[in-house]
């Protein structure tokens, strides 16, 4: 991304964001509610009208038709059919994407929804629903995965399992951009983009951010950076 600017509702919400996401890594996008994480992800996937700047994904402009099968996107609000079962949803989206039929079982297994595969989506718990939504993004083995708060509402065991899944996907050479506003997840990433009020506050490895701010805790590091910014002339 180079100097990305986005206006929503007549107000600039991203003020010139420049950052790089290395291939084969898990990049965390962290920041408080309303700071622009979803907007940045929408721009990455190519579904956001932008006011200025450029977004390039796998060498092509974001949203190019050639990227449709190479980029998976799990929205924050689940986008699955409530009246279909988990497996039916996955068969449907798999057919749309041209994914192999065997993908349905693979992704159900990856998100740990084996016991709910034939359950109607409307009856799933919140955490199960968000995993069903994540499973759709894993169909067709996209090279880039853009996941908007995939672990919201999940218990610590499931969150750990999903982060292990993300790590495994990155080890296969896939690139993940994962948003969260839970700072304890930040330490699981290869690289962190800390956002605040439409700007990148810091961009680096978790260890780099800890040592730069002289704190052992990433939540403290974030607060330190905010205080530093507030004290510096703009
Ligand atoms: N459709 C819209 N129309 C007008 N303003 C919007 C719209 N969607 C988002 N915004 C505003 O854009 C800003 C960034 O929102 P965004 O959803 O990107 O934040 P976020 O960091 O993803 O928040 P959260 O963690 O709560 O999901 C917010 O100030 C929000 O109110």
UniProtKB/TrEMBL annotation:
The keyword ATP-binding appears for this protein: yes
Domain of life: Bacteria
Keyword set, alphabetical order: ATP-binding, Nucleotide-binding
Protein name, entry field: ABC transporter ATP-binding protein
Organism: Actinomadura livida
Domain ABC transporter: 1-222
Keyword Kinase: no
Gene3D superfamilies: P-loop containing nucleotide triphosphate hydrolases
GO molecular function ontology, one term from the record: ATP binding
One Pfam match: ABC_tran
CDD domains: ABC_DR_subfamily_A
SMART domains in alphabetical order: AAA
